[in-house]
Amino acid sequence: MMRSTSITKRRADRSQFRGRILPLCGIFRHRNCPERAEAGTATVEMAVLGSLIFGVLVHAIVLFGVIQRSMLAASAAAREVGRVVVLADTQPEAEQRAGRVLAQVAINHGLAVSDFDVALSGALMRGEKLRVTVRTSAPVASLPFIGSVWPTLSVPIEAVYVGRVDKFRSFDR
Asked: Which of 36, 85, 107, 152 is deepest in the core (most CB within 10 A)?
């Protein structure tokens, strides 16, 4: 008998806590329990922070692609301009060929011709070296279909090609 009264006594003791907030919210859960009030906040925080971090990672990957494209374009432009200038007979012909090749390289890489700055140094004479320097920049802050958001924030890119005019070449002079 003693045992049955203690069980009913325990049940009676529990009934006095119904509907009240317990310090640890252990056995009796209530809608005002602090643990229940914070339920799901970790999920929301993870969704918000995860999407921000994912966005930064995607932007970094795209940025590396844009920089690589600009580097390839500058390298190809310097090489091709150097090759056609060395083969030209006169200076105006060299400039004309360089302009056509630069336009073709820009089209191939999806850039504008105005994005490139070409500098030639050296003389168009037998055995001389011609140095072609092509400078461009890759925008860091740009949005798709809109373009550069902050035009001055860019990565400068430079490519150099040195070509030699043939020693035994004859020029029409």
From this structure: 85
